[in-house]
Amino acid sequence: MKKPKTYEEAVLQLEQLLEQISDTQTPLEQSIKLYAQAVTLLDVCSQKLQQATLQIEEIDQKLAAGAQPANSAEGE
Predict the structure, then answer these.
(1) What span, in angstroms and rounded, lies between the C-alpha atoms of 50 and 56?
(2) Which of 2, 4, 21, 38 could form a disulfide with 9 if both were Cys (CB 3.0 to 4.6 A apart)?
(3) pLDDT higher than threshold 60 for residue 74
């Protein structure tokens, strides 16, 4: 399994794993291996969401203090 670089890649890989696990033709041992990969991907997704939450909180704090976000463009 290739390590996803983005949240979206991780979700896509997770969806693919879930399809394989749900397939009645997938042997039990293979399903267990796929499940372990899915747990790893869930952890990646959780970490990326936590990072995004922290970034949003930082932006909100800057806005509350009257500062503009570092990456904001004029007119948006």
Answers:
(1) 10
(2) 4
(3) no
